[in-house]
Specification:
By secondary structure, the chain is mostly helical. The protein contains 6 helices and 2 strands; from the N terminus they run ααααββαα. Strands 1-2 form a two-stranded antiparallel sheet. The protein binds iron/sulfur cluster (2 copies).
Length: 169
Amino acid sequence: MDRPFPSIVVASVPDRNNPPSEDSSGKLPVVECANCGVCCFHMGYPAYIRPREPMTEAEIDVLQEQSGRKISARRRDELRAGHPGEAHWHNLPDDLKAELETYIAGYQLPNYGQTLDTFDGPCIWLDMQTRMCKHHTVRPNVCRDFETGSPDCLDWRRTYEDRINDPAG
Ligand code: SF4
Ligand code: SF4
């Protein structure tokens, strides 16, 4: 993965020592997405739920043996059930779908969680100049669900603020 870790200055990061309070509706204040994009910095690629054929127990056993890792009972249930895939995947234009399938097929698992440097890097659809999604109208569910100004949004903004202020941290 040779895409560079982004070096940016994020404007208007809420102060962790003076956290924003919820308003009377119980919602955190909305912050600006413009010139931000940090929730896409560690995504690697658009995380669609793609269709999965149901697997048999025997197939799951083979998968477990090949991976060398125990597959949990819950994961077995998911694999047995399969998944029809999310609607946004089915609506994705064929050329983008093919491009993404090729990328995922060649994907190499990074060493998650050791340091920020080992995160998967910016989503391949993030335009680092504008900090906007190149295919915003067809983005996956997970990106639509991520709420501007939510606790996770604010946490990620603070995380990257730390990274900028303390590169060794
Ligand atoms: S949702 Fe939050 S982290 Fe993502 S671009 Fe908008 S402000 Fe930045
Ligand atoms: S698909 Fe778009 S919104 Fe989702 S992570 Fe990638 S760049 Fe961000």
